[in-house]
Amino acid sequence: MTPPAQGTNAPPRQLPRSIGALFLGFLTVVVLSLSTDNVLHVLGVFPPWGEPMNETGDNLLALSYRIVYGILGGYIAAWLAPRSPMLHAMILGCVGLVLSLVGAVVAMTNYNLGPAWYPIAIVVTALPNAWIGGVLHRIQRRES
User: CA 74, CA 56: separation in Å to the nearest integer?
Assistant: First the structure.
């Protein structure tokens, strides 16, 4: 067995950094979403935990900050990616799509937690949010 030739430009294995970028992007979305939910429940903006959230305004508010956090998560995944930032953002978007689809199916079949359009909107916005986060990272990288 011969050692690798010196002077080759083969990149070191970047899988741990890629997984870390995806994990931190995902963690950002989850922590910010749940923290904001909790604050709004405690402040009485949202009904108590476990009660249906039927008000359109409440659902639009939750959707709006989840969109912002989804974009931020895509940005973070792209920013921390060792290479192919947009690919990392879109992988995170695919993870969000699958998880939100599972959540939507569960919510609409087993629980009466609010209007059906809300979990559908979460599913529909998962990929665009991640894509926008990746694009914002690309723009920021070009400007610096």
Answer: 27
* Model pLDDT for residues 18-64, shown as the tens digit of each residue: 999 999 999 999 999 999 999 999 999 999 988 889 999 999 999 99
Q: Which two tokens stand for residue 119?
A: 């979990």
Residue 51 tokens read as 């009660």
Cα(65)–Cα(61) distance, integer angstroms:
6
Count of CB atoms situated within 10 Å of the CB of 77: 33
13 token code pair: 């294995």
Domain assignments of the chain as residue spans, ordered by start: 15-44+54-143
Top-confidence residue, 11 or 121: 121
Task: Give the C-alpha separation, 112 to 29, whole Å.
Answer: 24
Q: Which amino acid is at 16?
A: P
